[in-house]
Amino acid sequence: MPAQQPQFSPKQVAIALNASESSVKRWCDRGAIRTIRTVGGHRKITLEGLQEFLQRTNRELDSPQALGLPPQQRREGLVPGGDDPDQERFRNALAEGDEETCRKVIRKRVAAGEVRSEVAGYLVTDAMHGFGQAWDCDRLDAYQERRGCDICIRLINELRSDLPPIPERAPVAIGGTPEGDPYQLPTALVELSLREAGWNAVSLGSNLPTNSLLQAIQDYRPQLVWLSVSTISDTQVFIADQQHLADQISDDVSFLVGGRALNDEIRPQLRYTAHCDCLRNLVDLAAMIRPVRSL
Ligand code: B12
Q1: Which pTM was predicted?
Q2: How many Å apart are CA 3 and CA 243, to the nearest integer?
Q3: Which residue lies with its CA nearest to atom 79 of ligand 1?
Q4: pLDDT of 221 strictly over 60
């Protein structure tokens, strides 16, 4: 008689995967995890069925010990990036379109007391930079990148909705990405960071014509305007547009710029109040601006 394979309950597998029991049951019922039923109708997962699932979905067990299995050697995931296991889990789940796992990683860190925008910035930036590299060497398909962006936007929006209502007298900040720049995530992260720092921050989105941004400045009367620049198609046109924008923004409005495309060659040709490399930088700066402007 062949030796019987170890069998696990969905609960045990959920603990080992750091997933919810209901997700594991759903995967069982959809056939994603090969499942057998006991005489009493309970789901049981064999070691072989579990291994098949892990291989097919490029997952690893977080706690193999929970199933009495030896700790695993870390294997390189689909997407390269930081060493922090949360970053690794987030970016690999994002590549698989596993929104729930991404949400869990974020929630875990927020529940541990971390600042929402910092958690989002930390995980999303690492993941998307990894996506760029993975895409470069054909390890990711375009649809995975697009889906990843959509998931991140939803997660950032959820974090924003979780924030307390904006106080009535909060200073106003608006911003977005310039015309020709389709990148949505950085400006959404800037908005979240400023909101969390007590600003009434509104991202106007991506690919924003300069004249429309100027109109928004008239309508909102902000104390701060941000511009996130990830790509520039025509440097001369961009610089001319930005000069026009800077000319129109009054001196009592802070104009903060940031983004991957603002390199050492472009920056000296622009006029702005401050350039920020990262979101932390922005929040610190915004805190310095705020008391003066909100009097
Ligand atoms: C997603 C993505 C896209 C998507 C964007 C979709 C969307 N809805 O946003 C789409 C499909 C549009 C796209 C298109 C292209 N892309 Co693309 N894309 C990416 C990818 C994978 C992620 C971008 C992202 O969201 N990053 C996450 C954000 C949060 O990180 P971040 O931009 O670094 O921003 C941080 C800081 O810069 C800073 N910051 C940014 N703005 C601001 C503003 C302020 C005020 C402050 C304080 C801070 C700040 O804070 C952020 C948070 O930490 C990058 C890879 C990468 N390295 O980022 C490639 C990447 C940028 N793309 C690249 C390329 C080549 C292209 C295309 C040319 C591809 C093609 N052949 O068509 C086109 C060009 C589009 C164009 N018009 O220019 C290259 C660029 C290479 C280069 N030399 O510049 C990259 C680097 C990928 C790669 N490795 O080759 N892309």
Answers
A1: 0.80
A2: 76
A3: 132
A4: yes
